[in-house]
Predict the 3D structure of the following.
Amino acid sequence: MSLILAAACIASVHDGDTVRLCSGERVRLANIDAPEVAGSPRCTARNRARLANSKNPPWCDTERGSASRDALRAFLSSGLPSIQRNGSDRYGRTLATLSVNGVDAGSYLIASGLAKPWR
């Protein structure tokens, strides 16, 4: 686990809380939950029912999910992104905070109504 702030090269933005770095590393924004994008397996009827009472049930507002993804993409391209790695999740993604010009991407999405704090 590294608490060092470093420059980040963003290759793609999957959704409002997951990106891929140019190195191929998958990064999940720490401490936020963004709505799912269209086609998310978390939003199938079976998974919605299975996860309904979980700590973080799926947020299946796909229109807002697309808006969240697009806002994160625009935010990260507005300057030089920095990454602070905090560990990894059960899917092998790096948990990290991403920021641009000292502004945290997760906080930005939450303030914009396009994400919520992770419960």
The chain has one domain: 5-117.
